[in-house]
Amino acid sequence: MLTRTSVTIQMPVLTDSGVTVRVIMGELGGATSPAQVYSPLVGIEADLAAGANTRLPLHSDWEYAALGLSGTVEVDGLAQSTGPLLYLALVGPTGRCGQIKGAECC
């Protein structure tokens, strides 16, 4: 019979006023996750207080997506609610800049 155990792994955290970003996989803003990846990708969890905003240090030639889990946020000026995946395409000079803002909570 299998036995359930749990492991606690410390994920690197980036903070700004009212914003907490955990780097789950890959690297963001100099913070690197201990998770092993086999291609260049980034996975984060961002918690934002209502009205808090920050700019994420995104790679200009990568594609990004955002998924809201609760409440509403703005991603580069686009409202993002719980549920649908928001595809951000290339971030470069004519693309998205990584600005996120907490709009309303749960």
CATH topology: Jelly Rolls
CATH superfamily: Jelly Rolls
Overall CATH architecture: Sandwich
CATH class: Mainly Beta
Structural class: mainly beta
Please tell me about this protein's structure.
There is one protein chain. The protein is mostly beta strands. It has a single domain (13-104), classed as Jelly Rolls (Sandwich), CATH 2.60.120. It contains no helices and 11 strands. The strands form 4 sheets. Strands 6-11-8-9 form a 4-stranded antiparallel β-sheet, with no helix packed on it. The chain has a 3-stranded antiparallel β-sheet with strand order 1-2-5, with no helix packed on it. A hairpin with a 2-residue loop joins β8 and β9 (78-80). The N and C termini lie far apart (40 Å). The mean pLDDT is 83.
What secondary-structure arrangement, pairings included, does this model have?
Blueprint lengths: L12 E4 L2 E7 L1 E2 L2 E2 L10 E6 L4 E3 L7 E5 L4 E4 L2 E3 L4 E6 L8 E6 L2
Antiparallel strand pairs: 1-2, 2-5, 3-4, 6-11, 7-10, 8-9, 8-11
Features of the shown structure:
mainly beta; four-stranded antiparallel sheet; three-stranded antiparallel sheet; 11 strands
Short synopsis of the structure:
The protein has strands at 13-16, 19-25, 27-28, 31-32, 43-48, 53-55, 63-67, 72-75, 78-80, 85-90, 99-104. It is an all-beta fold and 106 residues long. The strands form 4 sheets. It has a 4-stranded antiparallel beta sheet, with no helix packed on it. A 3-stranded antiparallel beta sheet has the order 1-2-5, with no helix packed on it. It has a two-stranded antiparallel sheet with strand order 3-4.
